[in-house]
């Protein structure tokens, strides 16, 4: 590993050890200092960001992408405000999750503790740099940030300001680090930093996430790939189904909890499909249908790839299924385990769908768009896990923690006959 | 991947989907059927085991290892009884972990669900084959077992009997699978089976665990490497410390929660060390000491490797430290994050040690030997996790589960202005 990388990784590790035992108040003070510093230095941030924007323009980046990249004073103020909101959230660290006095008198407690050093690899907007840092600090973790090279100047400036702001606080400034270099090599170093980094959270497209999972020796939490389904059951209220389908697909097509496929029971397909196709067409949505759907006008014939696709656009795949079980089998085969919805009046169908669909979230008679840390009341979200270990679904502050067992005795010894208390206790 | 491997992996995956929604009663019936079948066919198991024992003897295996491998009717009956005990444990699946009615009326629930397919790679005794299968089935998971090739005949027979026993039950017999082949290749296939296997749990020595972590694309839970420390504080009751040290080291030296290093504060070293060295010598323990410890007679000079070592034998490393903070720094550097103990009368020292030591378990005035699923009251244990993600410390049945979010509405749609309920609700 490069010396540059080792330097920031070790700095983060040392900071993590100092930060972990801090209670809530000094962490909140540090977050407010960061928010104030960001707001006060908005002009410098906008100036650094202008370099990223200029470079993007030279490289022929689309205006939509440039708008995602661009910061102005108002956006910087919103970023600072989001940090203040994180400061207002409860601290997960120190929460007693389980506890009892064991039969032998040992007092046993399981506490939430920080994970240590969290590596975040992300594409997209520079606000993630600050959001992720704030969530990590609040949960007592140091953070190694590896953002998009397209936002490197903005990220460098944001991290510099955060580090300077921490210098006047009890939180060590080393707790926020930008991974040096903009090369692919720096991502690799992060992925191989087992022992220095406790967990990696990749945030971005499927190819980024797959390459991290494939190559990383650091434990990974996969986030955000969403091939979400809406299943319209034989016993669905079809008008309700129509609203839920359209909302799930079209309310904000670019996000991971937008629907990418709908499945309709054969028993109601003849009635539902013409209405659904008309409504989706009104919304500008292109439907990629299997044979039975494509028999209707205006539908593009789907290939198998369409059923695997996370379009993130005004496209949706569609198929007719002969049973709830076939819908579940389709979702198990093609889905990404993010969010899948059923629309039905039947209690039995809802119960079966919920039991059989193996996804982070299952929605009944509701839009898939509600799978979100904000909607769930978490106050903030670092991403949506689509894996089964550690965290599944929207990840808030508790998902950025581990646990520690503590047991306290008075000379408890274990023997083959059971616990013995040492006879040697002096006065305590 | 070999066809043979894919066949068992797909069979496990299908079985997992059938098994996951089953409630407790049919799972318990299946476990009792397994226990009965094992007890009834003890003679066949002993016969298959005799082949393993004979092969081991031909290969010049030590008698101690052969004893670990050997099964007799009494041992088989104990294995069957352990399965009945798992049946008696509460079912973690379906537990509601969090739940609320959101401000918009959505009913939100987070439920425990099975992980899916669990791969277990293990060395050692054939009883693990049955123990691991029972814990996985109880928690609604299918299991792919890859035991030691030295126990292949025993494991094959045990799995055959378990599968046959399941055939008369509601649990699909495919839920218990032995990974075919005894080659290193079959371990590799398990490690690359992302999408087919949800989690891998390696149980064995450090080299096995490291190679799995290094090569696996399937998420891994590391278990069981224990370089546990006993720190004797400046304010320790020294007689109590002596008992705790000797118990932690010598009560059962071959297990992961046995102490492998002790650290003594410089302020009490002159008084403590002569007593400790005498007691450890009585117990047959060799002490590998740093310079200050090795100044005493009968101590072997320690190399740096000694402080990293998991001896699992009647050896212990020892060092004198100048402060609690130095003890913590030593543990952070050399420890494995399993269990570390402090002996002290000081409330402040205990509080600091607990806060600063970053391990799965921290013991205060108690032997390290208590870090154990049985002692913690879990009823059963699949291993002791020394990693921070998902599970940390002794893993019982809840640690073999994931979670699923379920939200139920009545036509809930998300808009930029907040939640809207579809106007189209018909009669339910």
From TrEMBL, chains A, B:
<dbReference type="GO" id="GO:0055129">
    <property type="term" value="P:L-proline biosynthetic process"/>
</dbReference>
<dbReference type="InterPro" id="IPR016161">
    <property type="entry name" value="Ald_DH/histidinol_DH"/>
</dbReference>
<dbReference type="InterPro" id="IPR012134">
    <property type="entry name" value="Glu-5-SA_DH"/>
</dbReference>
<dbReference type="Pfam" id="PF00171">
    <property type="entry name" value="Aldedh"/>
</dbReference>
<dbReference type="InterPro" id="IPR000965">
    <property type="entry name" value="GPR_dom"/>
</dbReference>
<keyword id="KW-0641">Proline biosynthesis</keyword>
<dbReference type="InterPro" id="IPR015590">
    <property type="entry name" value="Aldehyde_DH_dom"/>
</dbReference>
<dbReference type="InterPro" id="IPR016162">
    <property type="entry name" value="Ald_DH_N"/>
</dbReference>
<comment type="function">
    <text>Catalyzes the NADPH-dependent reduction of L-glutamate 5-phosphate into L-glutamate 5-semialdehyde and phosphate. The product spontaneously undergoes cyclization to form 1-pyrroline-5-carboxylate.</text>
</comment>
<dbReference type="GO" id="GO:0050661">
    <property type="term" value="F:NADP binding"/>
</dbReference>
<protein>
    <recommendedName>
        <fullName>Gamma-glutamyl phosphate reductase</fullName>
        <ecNumber>1.2.1.41</ecNumber>
    </recommendedName>
</protein>
<dbReference type="GO" id="GO:0005737">
    <property type="term" value="C:cytoplasm"/>
</dbReference>
<comment type="similarity">
    <text>Belongs to the gamma-glutamyl phosphate reductase family.</text>
</comment>
<dbReference type="InterPro" id="IPR016163">
    <property type="entry name" value="Ald_DH_C"/>
</dbReference>
<comment type="pathway">
    <text>Amino-acid biosynthesis; L-proline biosynthesis; L-glutamate 5-semialdehyde from L-glutamate: step 2/2.</text>
</comment>
<keyword id="KW-0963">Cytoplasm</keyword>
<feature type="domain" description="Aldehyde dehydrogenase">
    <location>
        <begin position="3"/>
        <end position="284"/>
    </location>
</feature>
<dbReference type="InterPro" id="IPR020593">
    <property type="entry name" value="G-glutamylP_reductase_CS"/>
</dbReference>
<keyword id="KW-0028">Amino-acid biosynthesis</keyword>
<keyword id="KW-0560">Oxidoreductase</keyword>
<keyword id="KW-0521">NADP</keyword>
<dbReference type="GO" id="GO:0004350">
    <property type="term" value="F:glutamate-5-semialdehyde dehydrogenase activity"/>
</dbReference>
């Amino acid at each position: 590993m490069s010396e540059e990388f080792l330097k920031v990784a070790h700095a983060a590790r040392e900071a993590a050890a100092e930060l972990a035992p801090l209670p809530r108040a000094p962490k909140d003070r540090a977050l407010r200092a960061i928010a104030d510093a960001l707001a006060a230095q908005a002009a410098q941030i906008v100036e650094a960001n202008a370099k990223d924007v200029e470079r993007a323009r030279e490289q022929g980046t689309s205006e939509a992408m440039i708008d995602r990249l661009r910061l102005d004073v108002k956006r910087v103020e919103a970023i600072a405000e989001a940090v203040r909101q994180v400061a207002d959230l409860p601290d997960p660290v120190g929460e007693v999750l389980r506890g009892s006095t064991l039969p032998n008198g040992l007092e046993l407690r399981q506490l939430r503790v920080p994970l240590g050093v969290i590596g975040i690899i992300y594409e997209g907007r520079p606000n993630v740099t600050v959001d992720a840092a704030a969530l990590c600090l609040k949960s007592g973790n140091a953070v190694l940030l590896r953002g998009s090279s397209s936002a490197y100047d903005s990220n460098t400036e944001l991290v510099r300001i955060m580090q300077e702001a921490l210098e006047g606080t009890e939180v060590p400034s080393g707790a926020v680090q930008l991974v040096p270099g903009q090369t692919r090599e720096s991502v690799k170093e992060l992925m191989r930093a087992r022992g220095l980094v406790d967990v990696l959270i990749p945030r971005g497209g499927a190819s980024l996430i797959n390459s991290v999972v494939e190559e990383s020796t650091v434990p990974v939490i996969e986030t955000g790939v969403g091939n979400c389904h809406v299943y319209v059951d034989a016993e669905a209220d079809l008008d309700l189904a129509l609203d839920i389908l359209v909302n799930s697909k079209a309310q904000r097509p670019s996000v991971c909890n937008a629907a990418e496929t709908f499945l309709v029971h054969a028993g109601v397909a003849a009635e539902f499909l013409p209405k659904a196709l008309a409504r989706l067409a009104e919304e500008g949505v292109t439907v990629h249908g299997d044979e039975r759907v494509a028999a209707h006008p205006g539908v593009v014939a789907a290939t198998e790839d369409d059923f695997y696709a996370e379009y993130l656009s005004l496209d949706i795949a569609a198929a007719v299924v002969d049973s709830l079980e076939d819908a579940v089998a389709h979702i198990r085969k093609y889905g990404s385990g993010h969010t899948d919805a059923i629309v039905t009046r039947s209690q039995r169908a809802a119960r079966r769908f919920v039991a059989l669909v193996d996804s982070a979230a299952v929605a009944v008679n509701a839009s898939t768009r509600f799978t979100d840390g904000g909607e769930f009341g978490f106050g903030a979200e670092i991403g949506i896990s689509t894996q089964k270990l550690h965290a599944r679904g929207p990840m808030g502050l508790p998902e950025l923690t581990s646990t520690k067992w503590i047991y306290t005795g008075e000379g408890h010894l274990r023997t083959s006959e059971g616990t013995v208390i040492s006879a040697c206790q002096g006065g305590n």
